[in-house]
Amino acid sequence: MHPHITGKTRIYGLIGDPLKSARSPMLLNRLFAEAQTDAVCIPLEVGTQALAEFVKGARALRNLDGLLVTMPHKQTMLEVVDILHPSARQVGAINVVRCDKDGRWEGAVFDGLGCVLGMQRQGVSVLGKSVLLVGAGGSGRAIAFAVAAAGAYSLTISDLDPHRAADLAQSAGKEGSCNVHAGPPDPEGHDIVINATPLGMNPDDPMPVEAERLTPAMVVVDIITRSEPTALLLAAQARGCKTLDGEPMHLGQALLALDFLGFKNIERRYSTGL
């Protein structure tokens, strides 16, 4: 039961398929409750073929203020919204939609910025650092732009598809003065290693990098969110590395999304560590 939901409660939805392991509704509802905000986030499982029909119905809801977007809709939503935030235009994906009172939908993406913010909140800055990013897919693409813009000295992008890594390196290299290039998933010579691949979600997955080449001075970030540390994080911890899982990025994304959706007080409260 949710006794505090009334006819005035503003609704935010998370759309994707599947959503059984989705954690965003739980996180946002906790933030809403702590801030005593009359809002609720609910999961809305929408299949690929049903997106157009869902959007048509959702646009008729006058108490729907926003949507969080996860797979498989991050790219498809680009064709649905009325306005693209610069972040969505740059990355080519959307993970949050603001439903304005005038009926227009604006889409943005905070995967990469959320990763950088989450790292900063844990005392890890990319400024002046050499970063290895493994994975040039949706999240990896967003992280590459954010890391380059945040002042990293160099960024090596590695992917199973070398052409995808090279294309992303060329695009992200236009951000700031960061030296961005494609390369192998070799941690040697890097200050920060970020795994933006799905490798580690399953127990029998291969390592995204050679763990024996990690050194204690490195920070290892695995954006996978799960109850137990991934094999990469366990191996990094055994070698004395500082490690971060996907939770800081998840919270960073949520804070930036809430700010975009108009919840300035929530974002400021958590940005100051309160």
Automatic annotation (TrEMBL):
InterPro entries the record matches: Aminoacid_DH-like_N_sf (IPR046346), NAD(P)-bd_dom_sf (IPR036291), Shikimate_DH-bd_N (IPR013708), Shikimate_DH_fam (IPR022893)
Keyword DNA-binding carried by entry: no
Keyword field: Amino-acid biosynthesis, Aromatic amino acid biosynthesis, NADP, Oxidoreductase
Signal sequence, renumbered to the chain: none
Stretches that traverse the bilayer: none
Residues covered by the Shikimate dehydrogenase substrate binding N-terminal domain: 14-97
Pfam families in alphabetical order: Shikimate_dh_N (PF08501)
GO terms for MF: NADP binding; shikimate 3-dehydrogenase (NADP+) activity
Highest taxon of the lineage: Bacteria
Protein name: Shikimate dehydrogenase
